[in-house]
DNA sequence: CCTTATACCTACAGTGACTATAGCTTACAG
DNA sequence: CTGTAAGCTATAGTCACTGTAGGTATAAGG
């Protein structure tokens, strides 16, 4: 029987986070000792590891809920899991695109800055004058 | 005299968001009509545009607060604004790195998936077995 | 058996940056 | 003068946690 602290250490999850996952129904309600402390089995550890790994890959808790459901009902086709993963991939690719546009704009901003007084500061000027900024508008509109 | 709705339309900011910016002290408290409605001048419009543009470039509201302070005191050196922008650039670059690691991992996941039953689903397998995943661990640890 | 340190418990507030809702009031055009 | 669009406040909700206060349980050492 594993304590919540052991789960925490073995998965790199904060204790509060584990309790939070239980609260929102992502983890099953744990058994309790006579004194009311949570006790877990290996299966719970695996489930938590699955959740944490999925979170690291950027899946939302809702997506993870779906993935766990699939994982719990192994007879279905895997197409659903595949489509969730593909959706996630698309989102990540979108975010990368956005950030690359930002990066370009920020680079231009700091490259043009000469360390002059604020009056002629290129950074502030760019921020003031949105019209000078094309890349970002196209990507973020 | 501009209404909050006009400001909203001209900067693409939700009305609530403008009120929120006032509440947290990012926008000055607006003048009011006898009936209590907010009225703005051109200067407020520029300030809001500055805030929105900075947000689109990913600056936090705290960073924007600093940038606005600098912008309000034009006699100082621009070095501070420059360093805020550079910090932002570094953060964006970091995020891009992270996301690219995620993308790689997700691509591997969906590429290996054959649409079989859940039992042998590669997506779920990868999520279950964190040890198979090296890239992400290196980038996100 | 008793003490003590550590781990655990609940309940609630806070984070960032908004967004949404309910229920009301004002401004302005016709 | 009336209708309606737009405004107002106050409050709660979003996401995924994180932190805190104040109390209790457990396990190891004496």
**Helix and strand string of chain A, N-terminal first?**
HHEEHHHHH
Q: In DSSP terms, counting alpha (H) and pi (I) runs of 4 or more, how many helices of chain A? A: 7
Major β-sheet strand ordering of chain A? 1-2
Structural class assignment of chain A? mainly alpha
Radius of gyration of chain A: 23 Å
Tell me the overall shape of chain A: elongated
Q: Using CB atoms under 8 Å apart, which protein chain pair has the greatest interface?
A: A-B, 58 and 58 residues
Whole-number total of structural domains of chain A: 2
What is the terminal separation of chain A in angstroms? 52 Å
Approximately what portion of the residues of chain A adopt beta-strand conformation? under 5%
Described by strand count, sense and barrel closure, the largest sheet of chain A is: 2 strands, antiparallel
Task: Work out the oligomeric state of the chains in this entry.
Answer: homodimer
